[in-house]
Amino acid sequence: MSKFNKKKVFLIMMLMSTLMVMSSSKWLSIWMGMEINMMTTIPFLFKNKSKELSQKIMIYFLIQAMGSIIMLTMILIKNFNWNMSLINILMTLSMMIKLGTPPFHPWMPEMFNKMNWDIMFVMITLQKINPLIVTSQLSEQNKILTIIMITSATVGSISGINQLSLNKIMAFSSINHMAWMLMCMLTKNELWMKYFIIYSIITATLCVMFHKNLIFYTNQLNINSNNPSKIKMLLMMLNLGGLPPLPGFFLKWMTVEAMMTSGYFLIMTIMIFSSMVTLMFYMRMMYTSMMLSSMTLKFKLMDSSKYFYSMIMVNIIMPIMILI
After folding, report:
1. Are 40 and 17 within 8 A, CB to CB?
2. How far is residue 311's CA from residue 316's CA, in Å, rounded to a whole number?
3. Three-class secondary structure assignment of the chain
4. Is residue 109 within 8 Å of residue 171, measured between CB atoms?
5. Membrane spanning segments where (predicted)?
6. Who's near 9: CB < 8 A, 6+ residues apart?
7. How many domains does the chain have?
8. Tell me: the pLDDT tens digits for 183-206?
9. N or C, fewer C-beta in 10 Å, the chain?
């Protein structure tokens, strides 16, 4: 069996384990689905034999195993009818370890550094579905989520400012967006699914663009100056940052509206300011390559590949269909 076919098999098993978690009604079966998901992810990550990749996979395995042990322990303790609020808090913290939200985040940017963009996309989107589903079931009257949201919004925005690696920037961007998804859970529990779907579409488009142009660092955005899809890349960056009138803005608008209805005014202010910081470093990444003084081809909106044009249309039309 070729490497490509093996990769497809593990990806299908990953998706099947996610469906298992989504359809399970028992905590133990949810835990089992998450373990299957973790064990199928490790061969998916192992593309070639290298010391650096082996170290990253070992870090990923240990972190995920730690979260799974805490979750399994809390599931077993539930049967003894102990303090249920404390059990819910500890189960939530185990999911935060798996998601890589602050203060459990240092492993994630380092692991994602220099990672291939196709694997990167799977790690920051598909691998977050299972912990988010569990967290949404624990979100009612969960006091710890507000603290995690504030730390995720601030750390995700401030830590991404001085980064040169696009992988790390996308990782910190994921941490910042995680705060918005958690807020959606606290206010309107079904809203986080819409947010996650649209965030995944935008991230997929960016990862495909970076993968096609072999871009891993911010200075490479300038080196690849003959790339006619720079306008599209800028559009996706602004979309991810939530600049109006792009679909990413409507997501944050709906979340802010839900926060105002629920009375989370202080957290709303912090998250809006953190979103402005993330938008700043998105724009700074594309600023030099879009300067008019640079002798590059910038305003050719369509290139020979219709694939990218269709992806841009999906990013504009698909979110509107989901949000209606």
Report:
1. yes
2. 9
3. CCHHHHHHHHHHHHHHHHHHHHHCCCHHHHHHHHHHHHHHHHHHHCCCCCHHHHHHHHHHHHHHHHHHHHHHHHHHHHCCCCCHHHHHHHHHHHHHHHHCCCCCCCHHHHHHCCCCHHHHHHHHCHHHHHHHHHHHHCCCCCCHHHHHHHHHHHHHHHCCCCCCEHHHHHHHHHHHHHHHHHHHHHHCCCHHHHHHHHHHHHHHHHHHHHHHHCCCECCHHHHCCCCCCHHHHHHHHHHHHCCCCCHHHHHHHHHHHHHHHHCCHHHHHHHHHHHHHHHHHHHHHHHCCCCCCCCCCCCCCCCCCHHHHHHHHHHHHHHHHHHC
4. yes
5. 9-24, 58-76, 82-99, 144-164, 191-211, 231-251, 263-287, 307-323
6. 1
7. 1
8. 888 887 778 888 888 888 888 888
9. C
Pull the structure tokens for residue 295: 């002798």
Compute the residue count for the chain.
Answer: 324
Find which of 25-29, 242-246, 319-323 is predicted with most confidence, using mean pLDDT.
25-29
Q: What tens digit of pLDDT does each residue of 82-124 get?
A: 777 788 888 888 889 888 888 888 888 888 887 888 888 888 8
Cis peptide before 103 (omega within 30 of 0): yes
* 155 within 8 A of 163, measured Cβ to Cβ: no
Predicted TM-score (pTM) of the model is: 0.84
Q: Which residues pair with 217 in a beta bridge?
A: 165
Domain that holds residue 35: 3-323
Give the integer Cα–Cα distance in Å for 179 and 158: 14
Which residue, among 242, 232, 324, has the nearest Cα to 275 in the 3D structure?
A: 242
* Residue 241 neighbours by CB under 8 Å, 6+ apart: 248, 275, 278, 279, 282, 283
Put residue 263 in one of left, alpha, beta given phi > 0 → left and psi -120 to 50 → alpha. left
Q: Distances from the Cα of 119 to the Cαs of 43, 112, 223, 267, 268, in angstroms?
A: 11, 9, 24, 33, 33
